[in-house]
Amino acid sequence: MNPERSRLDTPVTEFRGVGEARASALFKMGIFTAGDLLRCYPRAYQNRGDTVPLSVIREKLKNGESDGPFSVLLTIAAEPSVSMIRRGMTLLKVRAFDETDAVEITYFNQTYLRDKLTTGAMFRFFGKFTLEKSKLKLNSPISEPYAEGVPLPDIVPVYPLSSGLTQKMMASLVNEALRMCGNEIAEFLPSDARVELGLPTLGCTLTNIHRPESMDMLESAKRRLVFDELYLMFLSITLSGAKLKRDNTIPMKLSRQDAAAFKEVLPFELTNAQRRSVNEIAGDMGGEFLMNRILTGDVGSGKTIVAAAAVYTAVKNGYRAALMVPTEILANQHYEDLSELFGKLGITCALLTGSTKKKERERILAGLNDDGTDAGKIDVVIGTHALISEGTVIGRLGLAVIDEQHRFGVTQRAALFEKAADVHCLVMSATPIPRTLTLATYGSIDVSRIDELPKGRQKIDTFLVDERYRERLNAFIRKQKEEGHQVYVVCPAVDEAEEDPYAKKYDGNDTDEMADVPLVENWRDTSVPLKAATAFAEVLAEALPDLKVGYVHGKQKPAQREAVMAEFASGDLDVLVSTTVIEVGVNVPNATLMIVENAERFGLSQLHQLRGRVGRGTAKSYFILVSDTKNPTAKDRLNAIKSTTDGFKIAEYDLEMRGPGDFIGENGIIRQHGQMNFTLAATCRDTDMIERASFYAKRTAEADPELKEETNRRAAKQLERFVKEFGNTQN
Ligand code: ADP
Ligand code: MG
After folding, report:
1. Could you tell me the pTM of the whole model?
2. How confident is the model at residue 413, as a pLDDT?
3. 467 lies in the same domain as 412
4. Within 10 A of 464 (CB to CB), how many other CB atoms are there?
5. 278 is in which domain, residue-wise?
6. Is residue 196 part of a domain?
7. Residue 506 and residue 638 in one domain
């Protein structure tokens, strides 16, 4: 045995009462040590401290306001009665009262309570109430004997469990771990960060997360955990970004080119935002360091032409440029547009994808290595990840442009960055990211934003309706068809059997249902039943028998999905019902209407991206959100989509409403937390806190990039665990 071992590393098997069965139940939850126990946060809390008079509960039930759970302080009125109601099922009934009212309490199969619930004894009960024929009833509540002077805990944690464990066991194991490790829990946050934000120490935080002294203490503990996660997340991102920058120190100064010739061939005037971005990029390419920049802007904001300007600069300086995109369709599209443009400038383009024929491929590879002035010379190569496949060598590469980088796989991205390690690098993203997050998520990458659409874009009319409009909606769909147009319908789920991922149900533990204060809040209104794409397609087909309705979703085989998409693109289908798989990469200019079912389930940025799928042709287009939500916050969110079309504004609003987690997830930077669906950080709506976490993470990464200093060493350890839990953050 290692005497140096930290108590935090004590195996759970050494805890009292943990045998083989319990150990394996704990292992299943990823709990192996005392430290793991401390990090197994309750998923909710029961607030049993606020006891409510029975008369108040009766009022609330009468008004249909709430059935609890409530905490009540009651005296037992008479001995319980026990009866057998079925084979193997006993029913215990007992009457109890407070100063305001009386209630009948029932328990199933808990006969042993008969000896505890004695006449005159006082108990604190916690449970859900019903009103039956004006009789107040309380079903299977949690009971705690009450005695003056012996305080009961007010706030009781509810842990996630696996079968074979109970709340009591978990609580006692965690208490044991707290007792054992209390003074070994060392700080890993910079102390000035803690002071500035008024956060408790880590030791105090863990104690209050597991055994909250008060709701206020619980709140500060939560704030601290949220900050920790943000700090670690940004630290990890910044460190990987810092590495990129350090490696990129070889300069490749490319002089600004006479833009007149380039502008000459453009069929339009650049917008101000485009011009600004072109200038920022030219500044980078002519500077002391290699460019490392991300260009963000809504779909249709005109990123391609900005990239083309950079390509032009590289080629005019005698270098080659490569443009990599995630799909062949996109590669084809870019090739067509750019070869036409560059053709007029005497710049040669080539298209290299997985389906490029061998002969053509050989021609291209030769053209990419020819430094002479041969006729076969190729200046710009556009392609898919075939560009980074082995055997593809690009001579005198000066610029790598990566479009929609979040859609590349992790290994592809790594290979890409390796290949582009010593050239200027420009990444394009169609997801508008709030300012607060660009800084943080992209570490030391510079950011250009195109926050303005080219003039003359048609406005898409956005409406918010509820189920009462169903008939009218169907009529509207038919009208589009009659005018020769097509319709998208988006549903949040694939099929009806699918479990609602956000309305997580916990089984096997009665106290779980009664938890009333969740550890993390969910911004989604999950009270409205979920519509499923497959079933809804059938409903629509029935309501509109003369229309051709097809559906696509993520569970289909890619070939099948593409076949249906192609049918829709060619106009063979009138209506395409889908999940959000159509969010990216579809271009059907003939589609003039998109209807989003259960709109309350979607993130605003997601809705915004969906809206970008219509209005691509010349015909007037519509975006209709269908939601039966009664939740005022959810309604506010949906109204925000109605009132603005600025992707950045929407993204910022979204950040305030639901925290950064979904963005970071959407951009593939970190995976969502497996067990809880989201991280604690994901619930943070405090942009100030996000900014401060990013600031301190940056400072730490810059001052101590190897994380050698004592406090930072501990942060490094946390980081290791964090990366293991949340996935690789090195996008
Ligand atoms: P995205 O940012 O989504 O990549 P694109 O670069 O594909 O957008 O541009 C969308 C469309 O807008 C293209 O047809 C492009 O030619 C056109 N476009 C780009 N910039 C302008 C502009 N300044 N004025 C008018 N049309 C423009
Ligand atoms: Mg694009």
Report:
1. 0.71
2. 64
3. no
4. 18
5. 260-287+300-429
6. no
7. yes
